[in-house]
Design goal:
Elements lengths: L4 E5 L7 H14 L4 E4 L17 E4 L1 H4 L21 H13 L4 E6 L1 H12 L4 E5 L15 H22 L3 E5 L6 H10 L3 E3 L7 H13 L6 E5 L11 H7 L12 H11 L6 E4 L11 H19 L5 E6 L2 E6 H6 L6 H9 L1
Parallel strand pairs: 1-2, 1-4, 4-5, 5-10, 6-8, 6-9, 7-8
Antiparallel strand pairs: 2-3, 10-11
Helix pairs in contact: 1-10, 5-6, 7-9
Length: about 350
């Protein structure tokens, strides 16, 4: 019998985390289980603060009913490298025991799930909810926050394309996603962008310049290049310093490639008057959750509490066939993420 449960948000913040916490609180209240919020991810279980309320606080309906549509995470979040050390995980278990917390809901990405997996091995029942804008967990069709992040990027790119048309100049737009190109690909498809660059596919600067020149030759003077933030990892070697300095642009030896530098290279390779870069950045994390993310958060939060109440543990919740489901953490983490290569090729070939 679950007497009391806890919830934490870990890793990068994602729109919909607060909606999930609210759903968990409502469901826990229905089953008569007190809910403890653990602040700043796994750090709260290590009791780093001098005041217990800076690490742990009781959540009730008065506390969380109004946070569902708030961006960010009410419980704060942070990475916790110390949790890789078994000694620190033992401290976390002792904290849970001292607080009489019988089960834990972990909202986060793959690193957060690995932490939950370790707690399960130490006898702490855990359920995971995939909270990350990156959509990089292969077992589920969507992660909490991905839909919102894409919609933020779509709105931004549509605005950028409007001014690109006005000035007849191409645009380079960098979006988030870490090592996953799903946000970039979905954004490009949704906005009619002509070129998309992702970390899953090896590419070269010369190749993208050729694609852009092809657009210019067709009379498209305001093409959009959508780039995933991790795409620089899969870029073929390119002497940016040598190229830019030889074309009259100040640059520094060893300076890394960036969206701004890439736009400068495209301008000179393609003989354009101007090319502008925009990095959308943390606006993707800090937006109010879309209806789709909020709905997923509601279903996932309620299912997480129900599983713990029924004595089911070591599971993560996801979406399959547009329906909520759950599976063992070990199995979920073993999935290899497929990349939609056909869609990627279609965007870049039109």
């Amino acid at each position: 019998m679950m007497r009391k449960i806890g919830v934490l948000t870990s890793g990068g913040d994602a729109p919909g985390m607060n909606a999930a916490v609210m759903a968990i609180a409502r469901s826990a209240s229905l089953y008569g289980m007190p809910l403890i919020g653990i602040k700043r991810g796994y750090n709260g279980l290590l009791r780093r603060s001098t005041n217990i309320r800076d690490d742990l606080l009781e959540l009730n309906l008065d506390t969380v009913l109004d946070i569902a549509d708030q961006p960010g995470t009410y419980l704060r979040t942070a990475r916790c490298d110390e949790f890789l050390d078994p000694a620190y995980r033992d401290i976390a278990v002792k904290t849970l025991e001292a607080m009489e917390i019988d089960g834990l809901v972990v909202i986060g990405g793959d690193g957060s799930f690995h932490g939950a997996q370790e707690l399960c091995r130490l006898g702490v029942p855990c359920i995971g909810i995939p909270g990350t804008i990156d959509n990089d967990l292969a077992y589920t069709e969507m992660t909490l926050g991905f839909d919102t992040a894409v919609n933020v990027c779509v709105d931004a790119v549509r605005s950028i394309r409007a001014t690109s048309r006005s000035h007849d100049r191409p645009a380079v737009v960098e979006v988030m996603g870490r090592h996953c190109g799903d946000i970039a690909l979905s954004t490009a498809v949704s906005t009619g962008s002509e070129i998309v660059v992702v970390p899953e596919v090896t590419w070269s600067v010369e190749e993208i310049a050729a694609k852009l020149n092809k657009q210019l030759a067709k009379g498209n003077t305001r093409a959009t290049i959508v780039m995933a933030e991790g795409c620089w990892e899969s870029m073929a070697p390119f002497d940016m310093y040598g190229f830019l300095t030889s074309h009259g642009k100040e640059c520094y030896q060893g300076e890394p490639m960036s969206a701004t530098r890439f736009a400068s290279v495209m301008k000179r390779m393609c003989g354009m008057v101007e090319a502008r870069a925009t990095v959308i950045g943390y606006t993707q994390r800090g937006a109010e959750p879309t209806a789709r993310d909020s709905e997923f958060a509601f279903e996932a939060g309620n299912l997480a509490v129900k599983l713990l109440r029924d004595g089911i543990s070591n599971q993560v919740i996801g979406m399959e066939g547009n329906k909520i489901m759950y599976m063992p953490i070990d199995e979920a983490l073993s999935f290899k993420r497929p990349f939609r290569r056909e869609l990627f090729d279609l965007v870049n070939s039109l």
